[in-house]
Design brief:
Blueprint lengths: L1 H18 L13 E10 L2 E2 L15 E12 L4 E5 L4 E7 L4 E7 L1 E6 L8 E5 L2 E5 L3 E6 L4 E6 L1 E6 L2 E6 L2 E4 L9 E2 L2 H5 L2 H21 L13 E5 L4 E5 L4 E3 L5 E3 L20 H4 L27 H4 L47
Parallel strand pairs: 6-8
Antiparallel strand pairs: 1-2, 1-3, 3-4, 3-5, 4-7, 5-6, 7-10, 8-9, 9-12, 10-11, 11-14, 12-13, 14-15, 16-17, 18-19
Length: 356
Amino acid sequence: MRLSGLKLIASFFLAAILSAPAWAATPALPGTLNYVEGQAAIGNQALTAKSVGSVDVQTGQTLTTETGKAEMLLTPGVFFRLGDNSAATLVSPSLTNTEVALNQGQAMVEVAEIHKDNLLRVQQNGATTQLLKDGLYAFDANDGAVRVFKGEALVQDGDRNIKVKGGHELDVKDTASLKTTKFNKKTFEESDLYRFSNLRSEYLAEANVDAARVYFAGGPGWWGPGWYWDPFFTAYTWIPGDGIFYSPFGWGFYSPLWVSYAPYYRPFYGRYGTYETARPYLGHGAPLNAYRGRAGLESGLRGPSPEVAGASHFGVMGEGFRGGGGFHGAVGFHGGAPGGGFHGSGGGFSGGGFHR
């Protein structure tokens, strides 16, 4: 019986390895497409979900959306997101000189990490905005607004330089005054693009934990801090080299050396879900909070709707295969309740598990 049990465990383990998607991927560069939804294109090339991770916006090319959204990677830790009916041209993809021009519509830039040698700039309505600090920035080419939710920006218009601090905005169309004013953050937090960006940030934080457990420091595929592909989330996520970094939305990004401190999580709209499938549930309660800031380390993840967050996907996110109860874990192989699943944390098979 003991030998048969070991053979059974070994057969499941081997099957898991053979069926696992490839983790290796070409390192992403500024301009890499990381998400697309609805109608989007690069020039005349229509984009689909299959374009993610395999298509780059080249210098001088324009990423456009109609009824849809798109996410483009800039320097590691910086995400550029386009809203509906928008267009942006990649002016420069250099790591030390990264520049995008917003030609139409709206965009948000999430900056989880910026270095002193990074020159991050966004052109809009004839002005150029340099992002100076970690933070969250919004641009609207239709009304000329540059908004800084968190962080600090320097707007250059001709020979004038205007600093815009967190909670302030600047109308770059109003060239006569060019004075910053305060704005109500809560008003814009209800906007479609802001909520989309928050969900994407949360989703990529989950991917960070998933990938950081695979691309452990010094292990196969690890080349230091940067963008790393996670096939389960079908996206690149950012993995810092050391410590824990928090996005401007409050979600945590963990280095391989610190990922063991990450909380358990349950994805808000599933690994293969989209913003559209999640949107009906956004008004049912507060967003998931286990990744939100340091307080999240002490809390579990509870989704606003049991239909979305109540079950693990085939048990792959819970305790299960390497859980505290051995092969079956606290609840079992099939998951579906807290602690259930295929490869969470704890004891179990070889003290390891498959890829967390």
